[in-house]
Amino acid sequence: MGTFIVAGKQSDYPVGAMHAINLEGTEVLVANIGGNIYALNNRCPHMGGKLSKGLLSGQIVTCPLHGSQFDITTGENVRWLKGTGILSSLGKAVKHPANATKYNVKVDGQQVLIEV
Questions:
Q1: Where are the domains of the chain?
Q2: Residue 107: its H or E element
Q3: Tens-place pLDDT, residues 41-78
Q4: What is the pLDDT of residue 113?
Q5: Number of helices and strands (H, E) in the chain?
């Protein structure tokens, strides 16, 4: 198990927004979904795209590089690569679907702590 590290105050993370932060050398994507704070590794497991540069719709974040989608509350892959063409099929054959790394989060008073 990792160590919980202070990642700021709860008010630093407005509802519906995502932020990229660095915690002890680890790029972390932090999002407030419905008043709850969640954290994933900021790098897509497909090609390493920065998820923080993608689109957040509800609790689904879309990678800006190839359109893979992840549930930010669980890290679960909900779509691996976008499209159905030959390039998408080849990409899916080369690299199999993977979940994003999810980090444990706890809120202590107003402090957000993330385990990395």
A1: 8-104
A2: strand 105-108
A3: 999 998 899 999 999 999 999 999 889 999 999 999 99
A4: 98
A5: 1, 11
